[in-house]
């Protein structure tokens, strides 16, 4: 009952056409000829001059630049870089820098050049009126022909062909004209074209359209839809899809076997003006030259476009869903439509009064369609319409189905449709919702996202997503996608908790996202405020983004909120402010060409460089100096560059680097860069360009240049000055070091002399004071012993005093000796150790053996106090051997080891002991402490019954001050 058919309308779709005219830089709006050069630039001949288009900007040549005439009617390119330009007054040769004019036969009835071609032998052919000329030497010669010529073209092997009005098509081979077919088509031959994709050749006549098949003619159709055919205006080309485009006096048509002839005019996005020229570029874009509206580019877009001329109120569609074969298109205030895209039939559906102002619509396959309107909430299902009870106007912002129940968010919070009423479940400022699993709903607000548990009624915030302004949401098993109104798309991975953003900086059309959709191929679609984007995610979480814009006819297409849908055929529909768009993936462009990248200008201090300055030659067509050499103060350069792409120049990115200045490449979408205060040196500016899909290839343009140095900046001068400075610095360092060393030696000698004086004075004082007193004590002790003769106990005490006094006296002699100047020499210390050993062992019966191999040098000098510690270490060792070893022989050995160390060893043949079980006394501890004080290494080797060896190793580097 609800979908009772109303008025039926039938409209054709709009086509993705881009218009370029004088506002964009085209020199004049009547385009007579178009052709693409080897660098992929489009050359457009007009009544006002010649324009060269690189996909972004036009460059113009006119009579002021050297053209023979501003009426440019034909253009051709030779492999040697020469451009031939035909005009209404003759032909010009252009080498990128200078024009040279040529005239034809002075007896010719016209100077208008209709066509120019360069064949496989690099011969230049031109057609003027009914005559054919070829360039030989330095002039054009007339080529004999027979009949009225309507067109001239090259086949895929670049053989020249001509089409006669009544005789058919002929090819020039082996210096003669040969017919291409065995028969002449019916009617008058108007135009011929060979497809560069399939190689098929088509002939248009006044009676039909033919295909050349192995020298035979196959009639495709003789149903020409009212063509106004004239030989001057008739053009034919064939695109990649084998669509045949025909421009005739009364319009532009294209033909295929399925749909027949379709006319392009103002009703489907083109113009009603006459089409003067047609050209297909290397990426299958079709360029249409008009008689007053400039040029149009048609790209075989995967999008169909339907605006208000095809679907009433197409620009205000807020909801799209499917019932049967038809799409249901809902608008906010203008009603609901059924649309059959196969027949382009639109059926307006009469609605009850409640549906005149719809807030939102939700279609559930099992429960019907829900309408939230200003007059209540309604459900239409199986021909039945019923109202759902609500307490107020149902400002429902989002819907979903979970556990066989329809849930929604409105101004009050989270609600569920419970039989015939809307029940509030959770109050809150919720705007969006999505089912996570059978127990959880994710709610979106202006301040982040929440998880709502259907069983417990509890809500928890999603960590890291608390402050997002949620505009829309969708998701799959791996990820949740959140569209925002200021931050692009936020991606939340369920398993890892990883959160990242895809924004305008990453290639998104813009950061305001109105709707999100996951298609049947698991790709994410985003309808934004500036266009439509497709994002393909890999299993690892990386993604590839493609933006659809003006190339596909989506320029300025702002998406409507929640207005996206994938139908049963896999087509994806988007409601936008420009109308309804349908994406057909079968028409997706699967290839992209590598764009040529080049410099467009080089400026010095933001001014163009005069021709001939800083270089002996100029790069053709660019008019910039070749390998220039700038003065040292001419070091502020601006490089402007461009990737020549006639398909999608807005999607191209660049990588540039100035070798000699930049350490790494810089990626940018900008097309110019400034370098200031460059130092003298040799540089190369390098720039790469990606294709429209973001793929990088080896298409670099390199521009070398030099900035000269003044004499004091040259390498030779710097090397000479550096050498002088090095010598001077080395001499200063040498002089200063010698002076410092001399002073250090003087100070050291002075200190030594002072130390020696102090040591000598100390030794003398020690000898005079302490030595004399010890001697006197010893004498007094001996006298006391005599007087107490017979008193055993007292005599023993006095004997101990005398023995200790003698020991002290002998010890003081070592101290006095160590204060002597000669005691600093290692050799002297060793002799003193030997003397002490002999004296101590004199009355013990122990034999002393001394070995010094190799001999210690006499000039080895030790720091102060080393000798005293050496003597005391070995005196303690000898005393220990006498007391505890029970030895018969003691061996003293001195030698220099291979590691430049001096080794002193004392060993005996006594009973030995176990060092691990010996606690050791103060004597051993003192020996170790003294060894550390002189930076030596003391080791004791002993085994029971095998004697004991004490080894002291001293390193000569420790002797240095």
Structure explained in plain terms:
- The structure is a single chain.
- This protein is an alpha+beta fold and 961 residues long.
- Among the domains are: 146-264, Methylamine Dehydrogenase, Chain H (7 Propeller); 596-713, Immunoglobulins (Immunoglobulin-like, Sandwich); 823-961, Heat Shock Protein 90.
- It contains five helices and 73 strands.
- The strands form 18 sheets. A five-stranded antiparallel β-sheet has the order 1-34-33-32-31, with no helix packed on it.
- A hairpin with a 5-residue loop joins strand 27 and strand 28 (286-290).
- Helix 1 packs antiparallel against helix 2 and helix 3 runs parallel beside helix 4 (866-885).
- It is elongated and about 165 Å long.
Write the layout of secondary structure elements.
Layout: E1 8-10, E2 17-20, E3 31-36, E4 42-46, E5 49-53, E6 58-61, E7 72-77, E8 83-87, E9 90-94, E10 99-102, E11 115-118, E12 124-128, E13 131-136, E14 139-143, E15 149-154, E16 160-164, E17 168-173, E18 176-179, E19 189-194, E20 201-205, E21 209-213, E22 216-221, E23 235-238, E24 244-248, E25 251-256, E26 260-264, E27 275-280, E28 286-290, E29 295-298, E30 303-306, E31 317-323, E32 326-331, E33 336-340, E34 345-349, E35 358-364, E36 368-373, E37 376-381, E38 384-388, E39 398-402, E40 405-409, E41 413-418, E42 421-427, E43 432-437, E44 440-445, E45 448-453, E46 459-461, E47 470-475, E48 479-484, E49 489-493, E50 499-502, E51 513-518, E52 524-528, E53 532-537, E54 543-548, E55 559-566, E56 572-576, E57 579-583, E58 596-604, E59 607-608, E60 618-619, E61 624-625, E62 629-630, E63 637-644, E64 654-659, E65 666-668, E66 672-675, E67 681-689, E68 701-707, H1 715-787, H2 792-818, H3 826-840, E69 847-852, H4 866-885, E70 889-896, E71 901-908, H5 922-933, E72 936-942, E73 948-955
Parallel strand pairs: 62-68, 69-70
Antiparallel strand pairs: 1-34, 2-29, 3-4, 4-5, 5-6, 7-8, 8-9, 9-10, 11-12, 12-13, 13-14, 15-16, 16-17, 17-18, 19-20, 20-21, 21-22, 23-24, 24-25, 25-26, 27-28, 28-29, 30-57, 31-32, 32-33, 33-34, 35-36, 36-37, 37-38, 39-40, 40-41, 41-42, 43-44, 44-45, 45-46, 47-48, 48-49, 49-50, 51-52, 52-53, ...
